UniProtKB/TrEMBL annotation:
Gene3D superfamilies: FAD/NAD(P)-binding domain. It comes from Desulfonispora thiosulfatigenes DSM 11270. Coiled coil: none annotated. This is FAD dependent oxidoreductase. Keywords: 4Fe-4S, Iron, Iron-sulfur, Metal-binding, Oxidoreductase. The keyword Cytoplasm does not apply. GO terms for molecular function: 4 iron, 4 sulfur cluster binding; metal ion binding; oxidoreductase activity.
């Protein structure tokens, strides 16, 4: 009997030891499948960003052999190396998560928004290692594409110190800057180039980590502010805190005066980690060439230098941060935009803000059109706030090159539409759709481009996505603003980045115009049509109809007019004052409303841009 107890005790000890041996940090549990015996695959996914991981997992689940290539030492990119874990979620008005499927799997496994970075690394590795047909190549960078005429058939890469070639039937570009697409000859625009503002690029951000932050004080301060903001209906209602995430301190952030003039602190997005530290997304950096590695490295160093001054300011001015200490920063920058490839369909700002559905939808989005600060617009803006919209398969299919799909922030969106569609949850759903589409394309020997014109192909892809967890319900949502008589003018100026509706899609069309509104609108429009020789137009403090007519007349002719009726007649001849707005400009002393001014400036733009 005694010997049995001894044996039992020994077995218990052995079991404890075995459990202890397996209880290593999560990031070391999973071994990625990095060895391969072939250089030929069904699919190559370039880019280990979250979108690329979703694409590789989706393709493997649909029966393809997959090579996933990442030029860094770990998967997860922006979420892991960039430490961006405060996700931009997309919900329908009734609360339905629009980005279901593989993104939702990841989201549930990491425990929701503001997740722990080490947990995210583990989950990504686990998702990949579970699919036996995926081979991963880390520290492997693109050298050049291999093409046969306009078909992409392989890629040449630098793997450690070796140059190797890999071939596949189909390719998915999940790099943040669409590197494979660009080097293969796909046309693209850069930053705001499509609206005449190539240098209008949203600032990049370096996420930094703090310890010894009093979460209880952060929680109570921001939620109190939120309650008071709702009572007084001011901006404080847009702040708040949960158990592991918080957002606010906008006034405190913008009040900071940076030592580096090409830098800006804004309101904090705060994500609490399992060790009690917090990650802060708030420091915006300008003057970084996001396609140049040395420039990005320099941007990180500049930000680290600025943090020496930011931390004392935060300790003194931010409730709950009195004892905060800097732990470190992310390894890479959070870059919001660079290339926008041109595909079979370019998603535009009207698609987003008119809540348009597409028959070839492969995912849905609803995030506000959030244009972060630029070097010329330090405050940033919200162009508008959609209820929901769909992204078509055509926006993943680039022009000029076959066998290739592009997913993520550099997919085929206009620069303004990208303010919403660029977010990671949408990109991961695109990755899932691209994986399914690749399997269909290979199975049926049908090119991606031909698939865009095949209703049967699109229906089968959508059905397969829905079987595998995606949410793709058709919808019809009318935007009441589209019925307004001045809406065509709103659309024209909004599509140029000259008009913003904010979170409430409010353009105050019946409101009166002030000096600043008309000056900014007219001067910025003139830049769009390259009327630089006119100089800056100035408007009186309380403008009348005559003042506005004089300004538009001068913009047209470079001459100062004085006779109100003569100036109006010239503008009528040029269809700048059209019949639908003529009555609004009948009296020269009238105080004009925004609606007629918007249409007037819109008509001027249409004339000069012909």
């Amino acid at each position: 009997m005694k010997s049995k107890k001894v044996i039992l005790l020994v077995m218990i000890v052995l079991m404890i030891n075995l459990i202890g041996c397996s209880s290593v940090p999560e990031k070391e549990i999973v071994n990625l499948p990095q060895k391969s015996t072939t250089n030929k695959y069904d699919l190559i996914v370039l880019g280990g960003e979250p979108e690329g991981i979703a694409a590789a997992v989706s393709a493997a689940r649909n029966g393809l052999s997959v090579l996933l290539i990442e030029d860094d030492e770990a998967l997860g990119g922006l979420m892991t190396l960039g430490k961006l874990n405060f996700l931009d979620m997309n919900h329908a008005k009734d609360g339905t998560l629009l980005t279901q499927g593989i993104f939702e799997e990841f989201y549930d496994k990491v425990g929701g928004n503001a997740f722990d970075i080490e947990k995210a690394k583990s989950v990504f590795n686990e998702m990949i290692s579970h699919e036996k047909s995926i081979v991963v190549k880390l520290n492997t960078s693109l050298v050049e594409p291999i093409k046969q005429e306009n078909k992409l058939v392989g890629i040449k890469v630098k793997e450690n110190e070796d140059i190797n070639e890999y071939f596949a039937k189909r390719f998915i570009d999940a790099t943040t800057d669409a590197d494979l697409a660009a080097s293969s000859g796909v046309p693209y625009t850069f930053a705001g180039e499509d609206i005449g503002e190539k240098d209008r690029m949203m600032g990049v951000t370096l996420v930094f980590e703090l310890e010894d932050v009093s979460w209880s004080k952060v929680f109570s301060y921001l939620n109190y502010s939120r309650v008071m903001g709702k009572i007084y209906k001011d901006e404080r209602q847009h702040v708040g805190a949960k158990l592991n995430s918080a957002w606010g301190y906008t006034e405190e952030g913008y009040s900071y005066e940076p030592r580096d003039p090409l830098m800006r602190l804004r309101g904090f997005n705060i994500a609490k980690q399992e060790n009690g530290n917090v990650l802060i997304n708030a420091l915006v950096i300008f003057g970084v060439d996001v396609l140049d590695e040395k420039s990005k490295e320099n941007g990180i160093e500049r930000a680290k230098e600025e943090l020496k001054y930011i931390l004392p300011y935060v300790q003194e001015n931010f409730v709950g941060f009195k004892k905060a200490k800097l732990v470190g920063t992310a390894e890479e920058l959070y870059v919001r935009e660079s290339r926008h490839i041109i595909g079979e369909y370019v998603l535009n700002i009207d698609d987003v803000l008119e809540n348009r559905d597409k028959e070839d939808r492969i995912t849905l989005g609803s995030y506000p059109v959030d244009v972060q600060p630029t070097v010329n617009q330090r405050w940033g803006t919200v162009v508008g706030n959609p209820e929901q919209y769909s992204i078509p398969f055509r926006s993943l299919v680039p022009l000029n090159v076959e066998n290739l799909l592009v997913v993520g922030r550099s997919a085929s969106y206009s620069s303004l539409a990208a303010g919403s569609a660029r977010v990671i949850p949408v990109g991961m759903c695109e990755g899932q759709a691209a994986g399914v589409a690749s399997a269909y394309s290979i199975k049926h020997d049908l090119s991606f481009r031909k698939m865009t014109k095949s209703q049967n192909a699109i229906t089968e892809i959508q059905n397969k996505l829905k079987e595998q967890g995606a949410y793709l319900e058709p919808f019809s949502i009318e935007n009441p603003l589209t019925k307004h008589w001045a809406y065509e003018g709103v659309k024209t100026l909004r599509s140029l980045g000259l008009l913003d509706g904010g979170y409430l899609n409010e353009y105050n069309l019946e409101g009166s115009v002030d000096k600043w509104f008309i000056e900014n609108l007219l001067n910025n429009m003139m830049k769009k049509v390259e009327l630089k020789e006119h100089g800056t137009i100035e408007i009186p403090l309380e403008p009348t109809t005559k003042d506005i007519i004089e300004a538009v007349y001068f913009a047209l002719t470079k001459e100062k007019g004085s006779n109100f009726e003569e100036m109006k007649n010239i503008l009528k001849e040029k269809d700048i004052i059209t019949d639908d707005i003529s009555s609004y400009f009948a009296e020269e002393s009238k105080k004009p409303q925004r609606a007629e001014v918007i249409v007037l400036v819109s008509n001027f733009y249409k004339l000069k841009s012909k």
